[in-house]
Amino acid sequence: MSIGAISPSSANQPPARATPPVQGTSSPAPAASGSDSTTNLTPEALALVSQLKTRDTEVRQHEQAHLATAGGLATSGASYTYQRGPNGVDYAIGGEVHIDTSPGRTPQETIERARTIEAAALAPADPSGADRSVAAQAQQMELQARAELATQQVEQAAARLNGSGPASGDAAKVRRAYEAPPPATPRLDVFA
Description:
Oligomer: single chain
Distance between the termini: 89 Å
Structural class: alpha+beta
Largest sheet: 4 strands, antiparallel
Shape: rod-shaped
Number of domains: 2
Order of helices and strands: EEHEEHHH
């Protein structure tokens, strides 16, 4: 689940000393609010810093919503893509949380996992396209598990009706033995 990066307009381009986005997994401290980091910046650079701060907050909240809802299915913490602002501070402009999307051992477990995956994908206030895609895949996984569960239930019900279920015990085995045709045609040989 990831959220796209911010792309400043041409009017808000950072000065030449700004660096391109950097991929990272640590959580650098957000921009310092002190006046020393922004005193020598142009109004355009200050506007970009403000935009980057806002984006940083949005990205972190978005990824934390995924983590909070994913529970034990999250395989890692959030990882972020950073962009260095004109003030020299790195701001998160994109991020992702890895979630285990494998099916469970049983159809019921798969249904529960699919519901958790879908909830985690749609947890942020504004899910991205990738988030919606993951949610759709989780819905499909749940539907397949429900179909498998229904098939198992029908097979179990049919087995109980035919007397071959686990509850019928030895009586069912005896009844099946008498109802089955003999393996070979019986013969009677008479000797005098």
